[in-house]
Design brief:
This is Fibronectin type III and SPRY domain containing 1 like. InterPro entries: Bbox_C (IPR003649), COS_domain (IPR017903), E3_ligase_FN3/SPRY (IPR050617), FN3_dom (IPR003961), FN3_sf (IPR036116), Ig-like_fold (IPR013783). Keywords: Coiled coil. By secondary structure, this protein is an alpha+beta fold. Helices cover about 40% and strands about 20% of the residues. The protein is built from 5 helices and 15 strands. The strands form 4 sheets. Strands 7, 8, 10, 11 and 12 form a 5-stranded antiparallel β-sheet that branches. A hairpin with a 2-residue loop joins strand 5 and strand 6. The longest helix is centred in the first third of the chain and has 107 residues. The relative contact order is 0.07.
Length: about 350
Amino acid sequence: ENENIAVGKGCILTSNIIIRPESVNFQQEALQRIISTLASKNDEIQNFIDTLNHTLKGVQENSSNILSELDEEFDSLYSILDEVKESMINSIKQEETRKSQELQSQISQCNNALENSEELLEFATRSLDIKEPEEFSKAARQIKDRYVTMASAFRLSLKPKVSDNMTHLMVDFSQERQMLQTLKFLPVPKAPEIDPVECLVADNCVTVAWRMPEEDNKIDHFILEYRKTNFDGLPRVKDERCWEIIDNIKGTEYTLSGLKFDSKYMNFRVRACNKAVAGEYSDPVTLETKALNFSLDNSSSHLNLKVEDTCVEWDPTGGKGQEKIKGKENKDILTYFEAMLSENFVYLYNFHLLF
């Protein structure tokens, strides 16, 4: 049943099915296209997986950094609160000490006055019992003299110099508590949107234009990042060049000039910044940088031509001391260049063709 049987020229009968050679070629081409599509899709998926892993790693690292910064900020607040608390405690203690000293001084003065008054009162009371007039008169004079010396003590103010009121050192942090309760994360600008239609690639320059999804008057500047690549589509994580950064762009358009298009494509992304933080990156955009890249051969050039990569310069002294060009063909070439370029004229051109 599975035996091959020849059926006419160029045809084979296998399992009762006739397969023509051109049909096999068509199937091979179709299969090749499927393989190419699958390989491309696999590469795209792998690149996306690498991007996800890279993003996951970035999330973990950035979260750790943000947590560290948050701890530092709160530690700073705690430190300030501790300093303020210590200062207020010192103020209360100093006020307590001042008032205590004032009151202790008054108490001491009053105790001395009271002690002297009690002694004089006791002496005067005893003097009333003296029967002899001479001794009584003597005692009376002593009492009078001591009373005069104690007059200042009797003039002591019987009003406390300070009160026990300490309400002037009380605090109310209700407003501060409300402020602390309103603490929140910094406002972050939204991601800009690069407009591929407004972007331009020409004359070794790339102009990138973007816009904000909504008006934001707190944006201070933009950061543009770019890198060269040979892959179309989304930027790759592995085997790619580092992003180059252009900071402090005030407008929503920027032109990179003086570029050398030595790769097929360039990736671009942009982010907005306010006075405090930078926002999310825009979706990356890949622009094709078509170019014809070449270099000039110095070994086969005319003796009077100074050739360096893509630069040609006429050197009138370059042929001196060199071996003369022989042959009619070389002589015709020399005559052509000498007619085109004079000894006093330097012909310099640096070109980069685009198509």
